[in-house]
Amino acid sequence: MKEQKAIAYCRVSTEKETQDRSLERQREELESYASSKGFQLDGVFEDRHSGYDTERDGLLDLLDFLKDHNGSILFIQDETRIGRGNGRMAVLHLLQKYDTTIYSMSTNSEMKLNEMDSMLLEILSIVEEYQRKIHNSKIKRGMRRAIENGYRPELNISNRGQSEGRERIEVPIEQIVALRKKGLIYEEIASTLTALGYPVSKATIHRRYTEYKKEHGE
Fold first, then answer.
1. For labelling, which of 15, 55, 72, 101 has a CA lying 20 to 30 Å from the CA of 64?
2. Which of 13, 22, 125, 201 is the catalytic position?
3. Model pTM score
4. Catalytic residue at 13?
5. What is the pLDDT of residues 66-96, one digit of tens each?
6. Domain boundaries, the chain
7. What's the number of CA atoms in the CB half-sphere (13 Å) around residue 189?
């Protein structure tokens, strides 16, 4: 039976030479583990960075690959190799978005999310969709009003990218409330949204949540 194709991701936490052997050992063990599951590794992505750091070349290359090859099979040593802290949730969100199946050598099985992780990823998906809809709606409304007032976009290409001044940031307050009720602090909520490409400060999160409680008499 012909082996199916898969990829692997390896990570060590530092760039010390002593970690080179650890990285090599991870790669060898993952190749063996993938083979035992009937897969042949078609590519291995590697990093020498902390799991809290999301600016990892190997990770970014991996995500680019998975985006272009939806439904891929990924082998890892254990889930901490993907990342730690809030960055881990951001990466898991993208892996789920790209329909990636993950096999963890530490559990000798397909990686399954716990109830808390599943709940957070579901909320993050809702947040992403909510933000996209708001952004698109604002663009459409603004353009419609501008055209009604005589604006001709074909004559204003040179003005693209210029700042229009600061405006109130739109935030999905329902999801912030849900995350707060689950025990996340403002910094964790802000970090999670920022990691997904929605830069909202913890001060903004706190202010909007406080406004929400006042409006609802909480």
1. 15
2. 13
3. 0.57
4. yes
5. 999 999 999 999 999 999 888 888 888 889 8
6. 4-110, 115-152+168-215
7. 28
